[in-house]
Amino acid sequence: MAEEKSKKPKIDLKARLGKTQAGTGGSLGMGDGGAMIPMAPPSGDRITPPPSVRPPSSSGGIAPPPGIAPPPGIGGGGNLLNPFAPKPVAQPKAAPVSAEAQTIKVEVSEELHDARKKSRRFSIIVGVFAAAIGLGIGFFAGGQSVRKERAAAAIRGADALEIAVNDTAKKVDELEPIFKDIESQLKNKKYPADAVTKLNDFVVPFNAATLKDANIGALSPELQSKIILFLRLSEEIQDKKKDLANLVAYRKTDFEAMWARWAEKPGMEYVVTFTDGGSGKVGGELWMVKYDDTPAKEGQPAKRAARVPWEQKEWPADMQLKKNAQAGEGFKVPRYTKGDLPGPNAQFVPIDPKTIPFNDDEPIQVPIIAKMNEIRMLVQGNDAVNFEKPGIKTESENLAKQLSDISLKKQ
Predict the structure, then answer these.
(1) Cα(first)–Cα(last) distance of the chain, in Å?
(2) Would you state the pLDDT for residue 284?
(3) How many CB atoms lie within 10 A of CB 263?
(4) Which of 115, 281, 146 is nearest to 217 (CA)?
(5) 305: alpha, beta or left, given left = phi > 0 and alpha = psi -120 to 50?
(6) Could you give the CA distance from residue 375 to residue 379 in angstroms, rounded to a whole number?
(7) Residue 20 within any structural domain of the chain
(8) CA 93, 95, 98, 101 torsion: positive or negative?
(9) What backbone torsions phi and psi does residue 119 show, to the nearest 5 degrees?
(10) In the prediction, which pLDDT does 282 show?
(11) What is the C-alpha radius of gyration for the chain, rounded to an integer number of angstroms?
(12) Is 401 exposed, middle or buried (0-12, 13-18, 19+ CB in 10 A)?
């Protein structure tokens, strides 16, 4: 087998490719100029070239292997082997740009960019500056206008405040006659109906509504403080006079019931006991006579025990005494008849009921008197050293003077 293989003839590939075969059974090859050349059919011991291999030309050139593109200008429509193919036209090359020209172009572009940036920045700065000036002028002009209007409003407000201060200083003078009328009527055991009506109708001219259009914010801080103080005093007087009117009206039934009892059964209510104060000094203490009165309860009216009449010929030899109307416990004390005072034991001396203006109505009367004194202090104030208290009268004159000085500016 090895010998047979060694006896096989060698194939000259170049010679075989150069031969031409005739006959209908052969294939056609491509010759020079694109002419078809008949080729012999392959035999069992011959190798058929691949279809992509082109036969050599008359010039002895070899076709390029498959998959490799020909150089530019060869093959396709521009194949130099095809005399009828159009010849490629050479394109003119662009002239090279020198480095100097490129440098100049870049430099000019950067300068132009910087110039544009500076111009844009300058325009923005000028615009902002102009807007700021415009706003400043507008704000200044607007501020000036607002300040002038506030000043004018303060002048008008000072004029109105001055009038209200003076009217208040005059109005509070009406309170003292009302207080005197209350005290006089109660002393005479009469209900002060007219005084209560006057209190209800009394209105202080200076109030919070007075400050509504006064624009006190444009005034000095010191003057503002004085105005606020005057307002506080005025409002306290208004509130306390209302409390006083309600208190007197609330006690009307109690006063009338007590005065009726006094008219029917006048008697002893208070006594004085004497004590030894030492070193020969004799002192006296005020006590109330303790009667067995029954207070009102469960819808039942109070019952008043009979009082010891002042006019009776013989007074009791001793009586139950107590310190005040609210005290429940009593102490039995003998009445003074003769001998030295105070003596070895406590003794009492009766007090004529006619000399005591309010006798047993003191618990009812005290709150009313206290309320009137509070209002008097708010009206008159107190100039005593270490006890200074502001009042409408002490504050009105100076405050009205300062407001008058401001209101004169409108003329």
Answers:
(1) 149
(2) 87
(3) 9
(4) 146
(5) beta
(6) 6
(7) no
(8) negative
(9) -65, -40
(10) 81
(11) 67
(12) exposed
| Cβ proximity of 407 and 155 under 8 Å | yes
How many domains in the chain? Answer: 1
Residue 21 in domain? no
What pLDDT, on a 0 to 100 scale, did the predictor assign at position 313? 85
Rounded CA gap, 268 and 134, in Å?
A: 92
Domain membership of residue 52 (yes or no) is no
Quote the domain boundaries for residue 181.
Answer: 99-269+356-411
pLDDT of residue 198: 96
72 cis-preceded (ω within 30 degrees of 0): no
Q: Residues 29, 34, 37, CA angle at the centre, nearest 5°? A: 30
**What is the reported pLDDT for 139?**
46
Q: Are 396 and 165 in contact (CB under 8 A)?
A: yes
Secondary structure of the chain in HEC code, one letter for each residue: CHHHHHCCCCCCHHHHHHCCCCCCCCEEEECHHHCEEEECCCCCCCCCCCCCCCCCCCCCCCCCCCCCCCCCCCCHHHCCCCCCCCCCCCCCCCCCCCHHHHHHHHHHHHHHHHHHHHHHHHHHHHHHHHHHHHHHHHHHHHHHHHHHHHHHHHHHHHHHHHHHHHHHHHHHHHHHHHHHHHHHHHHCCCCCHHHHHHHHHCCCCCCHHHHCCCCHHHCCHHHHHHHHHHHHHHHHHHHHHHHHHHHHHHCHHHHHHHHHHHHHCCCCCEEEEEEEEECCEEEEEEEEECCCCECCECCECCECCCCCCCCCCCCCCEEEEECCCCCCCCEEEEECCCCCCCCCCCCEEECCHHHCCCHHHHHHHHHHHHHHHHHHHHHHCECCCCCCECCHHHHHHHHHHHHHHHHHHHC
What is the C-alpha to C-alpha distance for residues 379 and 377, in angstroms, rounded to an integer? 5
Angstrom CA distances, 8 to 4, 40, 46, 48, 261, stand at 7, 21, 11, 17, 172
Residue 157 in domain: yes
Mean pLDDT, each 10-residue run in order, the chain (411 residues): 50 56 46 49 50 47 54 49 54 56 50 64 63 54 53 72 93 96 91 95 93 82 92 95 95 83 77 81 88 79 82 90 85 88 82 71 81 95 84 93 78 46
**Four-point Cα dihedral 304, 306, 311, 317, nearest 10:** -120
